Amino acid sequence: MTDSKAALVFGASGIIGRGFLRHLDGLNDWDITGVMRNPPNFNTRAKHLSVDLTDRDASLASLKDVPQVTHVFYTAYKDYSTWEEAAEPNTEMFKNAMDGLLQNAPNLGHVQILQGAKYYGRHLGPYKTPSKEGDPRHMPPSLYFGQEDYLRELQVGQSWSWSAIRPQAVCGFSIGNPLNLTSVVAVYAAISKELGLPLRWPGKPEAFHTIYQVTDYDILGKSMVWAATTPACTNESFNVTNGDVYRWEHMWGRIAEYFDMETGPPQQINLAQMMADKEPLWDEIVAKHGLASTPFDKAANWAFGDYAFASDWDVCMDTTKCRRAGFLDFIDTEEMFINQFDELREAKIIP
Length: 351
Hints:
Elements: E1 5-10, H1 15-25, E2 30-35, E3 47-49, H2 56-63, E4 71-74, H3 83-101, E5 110-114, H4 143-155, E6 161-166, E7 170-171, H5 181-194, E8 211-212, E9 215-216, H6 217-229, E10 236-239, E11 246-247, H7 248-258, H8 271-274, H9 279-289, H10 296-299, H11 302-308, H12 320-324, H13 333-346
Parallel strand pairs: 1-2, 1-4, 2-3, 4-5, 5-6, 6-10, 7-9
Antiparallel strand pairs: 8-11
Helix pairs in contact: 1-6, 2-3, 3-4
């Protein structure tokens, strides 16, 4: 392995991948290549490599020509109607990526995969909290299990190492991403305000009061570099969150205050259904406030909002392990939301 650092970031246009490119852009000692279907529509110094990971032959052909790579960060994800349905095809995508890369990777030092709270069964209903990295797996299938098992198998006897980072509900600036809670909240608030409505909690009534956690994409980016370059992280998994927990019942009023809105009593709605006819209204908001021309289907993913706001059980991961290993960064989640709403406003995504 050489002393230089060359990152290959799979899924570089998603919320995690895009946020990570932003982090690497600020580090002068990294050479960066972003793997995504189309050239980036945002500013980055990363080189672009187009690879269709669902096509095995194309993946093998494209990835044999990046021998300079020292660190792989796998953040790619293809969405399906259910998490169980996503398991096999996403595992195959990862296999295509690794098999293609390992044809010619003399400088490879580390491979990192991104997981999350679903590793512990957060999506299935009440589960053990706070979750720890050594907790037993839930009943498969899960793409996290398939990818991790294949990575462990490949690494046996090799000089390179691996790590797995497990964030919860990554929040950041990303347009057109299916898993961005910040955009869901911001666009929901903008539409409610335009309709003259108070900001009502739209999720399950019980979910308004349970414990919740999220992960800021800047915190996540720092943790990814830390785990990929710290010997103590060799072949280990780490939960990474903002470092705090909150309840929506206490956060919601601060969000309403930011948007200069009154709060109303919680009123559960199906966001995917209720927002289905709001595209003309969104277009009016964009025109009225001189916003960037963001298609309504790219502004927020309402199905993800329905999922995130439906947890009437605690969602909480223990982060003791990463702190013991030396990762001490944190951010107050209320501050994170305000900062990210500011970013959306500055980019003229929301009024």
